[in-house]
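TASK: fixed-backbone design
INPUT:
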């Protein structure tokens, strides 16, 4: 290698070494302590020593600053390499020998600078930087606006986690009697703790048995025999209840009824205006008519009460004759018939009767009879004079 190339290599290495030291001052540990170290530069501009290959640490320094040549040094030759922008490129090396103080000080650095290297730039002064905020002074974010005054306690969690309790069902009987057209009531009974239980209903001297449904409810329409009516109910376990109702419209009709105990068939026959058995004016269980038809076509109707499917049934039948505003006379005769049952041969039987007439107090009485013996030719009893006729005269 020619001598000029060697001198160029040495000079360039020195410049890069100086630049690396300056960068270490600016970016090293000194800059993090908030002060500027004192800088001492020792330059040997005469007879530079050629470093060995093991001491050369190549780096690159590109500088836009003008190059100043120290006094007594030879200027670089025009053949100095440049980059695309015209800036000069130096190769720097660290001298093989340098003075290292016995006590290493962080604020004094000794650097050997090769002759012809540019001057070191003075580190920037950071003393004018003012600390505006530290992490310790950063206020914590406020969340009070998100809660809107909400206060949460352990009691709130207990309430939220509480298992809802099933409301207790009252076992008290709920009995109601609502007046409806035809001098009747709609009787409603609720007994939620008594599903499928038999219930006995008493009113006006008559009584009959019904059965509550699976929810302990019963609803039926009952003809009444008094304006101030009373209904007594009794469940099979002895639970009782009573309800009353005021009934209007009784003055515009006549009414008669019967009730009995036992499984043997019993019938109330009403023969209107001389009708015979099985004719159109014969009102009984197989031809009962009803309230609506009676109002449209005249005549009376029959209501049957009780549940015949019970093991010990109690039944009732009530005949009602509305008093129509028509000329003429209406006469209704009655008969009570009972059939001999398979288990009631020769047994005594009692039939309870009840009656209502306008401007008269309701009345009731009992009929006693004996059923035909088993094996006898006669299988039924027909009582024709058990009840008085109804006679309604119209002008």
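OUTPUT:
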């Amino acid at each position: 290698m020619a001598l000029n190339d060697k001198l160029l290599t040495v000079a360039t290495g020195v410049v890069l070494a100086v630049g690396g030291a300056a960068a270490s001052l600016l970016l090293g540990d000194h800059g993090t302590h908030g002060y500027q170290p004192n800088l001492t530069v020792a330059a040997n501009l005469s007879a530079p020593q050629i470093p060995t290959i093991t001491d050369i640490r190549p780096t690159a320094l590109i500088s836009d600053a003008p190059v100043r040549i120290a006094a007594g040094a030879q200027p670089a030759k025009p053949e100095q390499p440049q980059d695309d922008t015209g800036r000069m490129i130096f190769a720097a090396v660290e001298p093989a020998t340098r003075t290292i103080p016995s006590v290493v000080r962080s604020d004094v650095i000794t650097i050997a600078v090769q002759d012809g290297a540019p001057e070191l730039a003075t580190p920037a002064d950071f003393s004018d930087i003012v600390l505006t905020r530290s992490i310790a002074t950063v206020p914590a974010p406020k969340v009070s606006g998100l809660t809107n005054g909400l206060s949460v306690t352990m009691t709130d969690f207990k309430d939220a986690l509480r298992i809802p309790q099933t409301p207790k069902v009252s076992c008290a009987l709920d009995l109601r009697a609502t007046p409806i057209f035809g001098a009747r009531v709609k009787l409603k009974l609720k007994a939620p703790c008594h599903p499928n239980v038999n219930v006995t209903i008493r009113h006006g001297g008559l009584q009959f048995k019904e059965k509550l449904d699976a929810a302990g409810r019963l609803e039926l329409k009952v003809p009444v025999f008094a304006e101030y009516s009373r209904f007594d109910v009794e469940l099979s376990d002895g639970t009782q209840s009573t309800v009353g109702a005021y009934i209007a419209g009784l003055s515009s009709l006549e009414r008669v009824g019967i009730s009995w105990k036992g499984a043997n068939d019993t019938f109330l026959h009403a023969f209107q205006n001389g009708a015979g058995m099985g004719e159109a004016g014969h009102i009984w269980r197989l031809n009962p008519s009803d309230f609506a038809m009676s109002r449209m076509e005249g005549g009376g109707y029959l209501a049957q009460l009780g549940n015949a499917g019970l093991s010990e049934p109690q039944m009732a039948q009530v005949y009602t004759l509305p008093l129509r505003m028509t000329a003429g006379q209406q006469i209704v005769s009655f008969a009570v018939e009972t059939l001999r049952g398979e288990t009631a041969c020769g047994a005594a039987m009692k039939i309870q009767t009840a009656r209502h007439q306008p401007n008269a107090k309701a009345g009731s009485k009992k009929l006693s009879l004996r059923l035909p013996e088993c094996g006898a030719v006669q299988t039924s009893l027909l009582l024709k004079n058990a009840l008085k006729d109804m006679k309604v005269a119209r002008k």
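COMMENT: The first strand starts at residue 42 and ends at 43.
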